[in-house]
Amino acid sequence: MVHTFVNFTSMREIKFYTTQSGKSPITNFLDSLNSKQAKRVTWVLNLVEQKDRVPREYFKKLSGTSGIWEVRVQSGSDIFRLLGFIDDGKFVVLTNGFVKKSQKTPKNEIDIAENRKSDYLNRKGESA
Question: H helices of the chain, where?
Answer without folding.
Answer: 25-31, 35-50, 107-124
